[in-house]
Design brief:
The complex is a heterodimer of chains A (about 80) and B (about 210). With about 80 residues, chain A is mainly β. Chain A is built from 1 helix and 3 strands. In chain A, strands 2-1-3 form a 3-stranded antiparallel beta sheet. Chain B is mainly beta and about 210 residues long. The chains are: A mainly beta (about 80), B mainly beta (about 210).
Chain lengths: ~80, ~210
């Protein structure tokens, strides 16, 4: 199998919670390293009254989780 | 009128690659300053440079009567058509008494756009529900026994003409019957709906 590494990615994946208990995911590329809870919570506070749930427009409550998601995109040669 | 709001962030990473992030499902009442603060806050978690924030609002077509002003033209006094929001009700005063004379109803509607309203094709109606409802004096409570009932879905059309047919009568009775046409939210008729009774044609123009 011949493969070619195309790129790497490093994303910040945040799960936002809403009052209807339905979550949404917000993914941001190139996060700063060593982000803290207070930094994440501060952004969460800015989302109150702005973000709404995608099903019924439920109110945003908090950022539930925040994760660094890193990986490599590799193509498999098919020809 | 239903409105959906999102905002986009134009950012550049440290390798000078430009990207656009879209954050959907934003409260339509959120102010620009709130959106800007959130966009800047989100970007502060990254090493990207934020260059532009755009608020994007999309509004669904308001299905109220404001958009159309029906002109009723009855050729044979079949009854009265009324419009209430996105519901058109036609009351047929006379019905045939035998199956041989049963009503055949064909509804045709032309869908189009007007320059002022700029209705996208996605806003034209996808499903039209036609019910045959017994009138106030009807002996029969089952709408199918009033004259005949058919519920059908009408596939989305782009433009300019589409039509749908009632299938076949279940029975024919001499009770008043109402045709109730319910349009889904966002629908808009710009041209003609025609229905005929015993091959008499009644044309209703929507302007």
């Amino acid at each position: 199998m011949s493969t070619t590494t195309i790129s790497t990615f490093n994303n910040l994946k945040m799960v936002a919670a809403f009052s209807d208990e339905d979550d949404r995911t917000i993914t941001l590329p190139n996060p700063k390293p060593s982000l803290t809870k207070s930094e994440i919570d501060a952004v969460g506070a800015l989302a109150v009254g702005v973000l709404i749930g995608d099903k019924y427009g439920a109110a945003f409550t908090r950022i539930k989780t925040a994760s660094y998601v890193e990986g490599t995109i590799t193509n498999i040669a098919l020809d | 009128m239903s409105e959906s709001v999102s905002f986009t962030m134009s950012v550049t990473d440290q390798a000078d690659k430009k990207m656009t992030r879209s954050i959907t499902d934003v409260d339509p009442s959120a102010t620009d300053s709130q959106i800007v603060a959130l966009a800047e806050g989100l970007n502060s978690l990254t090493t990207n440079t934020l260059s532009n924030i755009s608020r994007v609002a999309k509004k669904d077509l308001d299905p109220t009567i404001t958009y159309y002003d029906p002109i009723w033209d009855f050729g044979n006094d079949l009854g009265v058509l009324t419009v209430d929001g996105n519901t058109i009700t036609a009351t047929i005063a006379q019905l045939p008494t035998t199956l041989d004379d049963a009503i055949m109803v064909e509804l045709k509607a032309k869908i189009g756009t007007t320059p002022n309203l700029n209705i996208p094709t996605s806003q034209i109606f996808k499903t039209i529900k036609v019910e045959f409802v017994p009138g106030a004096d009807a002996q029969y409570t089952d709408q199918k026994e009033c004259c005949f009932g058919a519920l059908f879905a009408y596939n989305e059309i782009s433009s300019p003409v589409g039509y749908f047919n009632v299938l076949k009568p279940y029975a024919a009775y001499d009770q008043p019957c109402t045709i109730k046409i319910t349009l889904p939210a966002g629908s808009f008729i710009v041209n003609t709906t025609t229905y005929y009774y015993n091959e008499s044609v009644v044309t209703v123009n929507f302007v």
